[in-house]
Amino acid sequence: MEKVICFVFFAAFIFCNLQKVERVPDVSKTAYRLVWGDEFDEIGLPDSAKWGYDTGGSGWGNNELQYYSDRRSENARVENGKLIIEARKEEYKRKDYTSARLVTKKKGEWCYGRMEIRAKLPRGRGTWPAIWMLSAQQEYGLWPASGEIDIMEHVGFDPGKIHGAVHTKKFNHMIQTQKTGKILAGDASDTFHEYSVEWTPESILFFVDGKNYFRFDNDHTSWESWPFDQPFYLILNIAIGGNWGGQKGVDDTILPQKMEIDYVRIYEK
User: Is 240 helix (H, G, I), strand (E, B) or coil?
Assistant: First the structure.
């Protein structure tokens, strides 16, 4: 009898603890429906119906070192169910590095929603991958007036630290008023994580694997602090060097480096 009582007690203990760790459904996602996405099931160049390219080697306002190529499989391709963006050390159009910057401009643009991107990041000093959004029509003027939403940024000299940010006329790094958050994901270059934002008329919430680490609220003062009432498009890229990514120099021995994207999913209420 004593053994039976002990067994019953042990079973009850296990049951209670299982109940405690049961995953709570993400109620916020139930209000959304999928309106756009790419699961990267095809092979070859990215789907031209969904993705375009920003091209050139102008430095992109950040003294970046790479040339962003156009429809070049060495820098952007789909294979094994993943989108691969690859930064390479090679001479190309008078630059010493190549990479790709994919955009959904004129192919996918949204005002409010939940944006989810599952990705594995490049590693190494000098890499600067980003998943971010810009205004499609620049309704309030040129950057930063019309806003920027940085869903994920990572600099290779500070591995595993994920940054989320917004930029507006009132809040931006040029005048040292930027609004940012950060979270550690130490294995971000070894495994996939989901980087997402939930954007409503009242706030923008930033997540890694469903964990909210940064929130930017609409203060209802003016467009100068909240230009986020207009359509934005998505950007995926790896920069090399630059004002932030190149602060510790570039380690050429680690190149080429890849950002792998498992999926992109856009939801709206």
Answer: strand
Residue 137 DSSP one-character state? S
Joined tokens for residue 89: 């050390």
Q: Judge whether 203 and 216 are in contact, CB under 8 Å.
A: yes
CB 238 within 8 A of CB 87: yes
Residue 166's SS3 state is strand
The C-alpha atoms of residue 47 and residue 232 are separated, in whole angstroms, by 20
Please state, in angstroms and rounded to a whole number, the distance separating the CA atoms of residues 253 and 238. 17
C-alpha triplet 156, 237, 159: angle, nearest 5°: 15
Percentage of residues of the chain with pLDDT beyond 70: 89
Choose among 182, 234, 237, 179: nearest CA to 211: 182
What are the extents of the domains in the chain? 30-268
Which sequence positions are flagged as catalytic? 148, 153
Rounded to two decimals, the pTM is: 0.89
Q: What is the pLDDT of residues 226-268, one digit of tens each?
A: 999 999 999 999 999 999 999 999 999 999 999 999 999 999 9
CATH of domain 30-268: 2.60.120.200
At residue 59, the 3 state secondary structure works out as coil
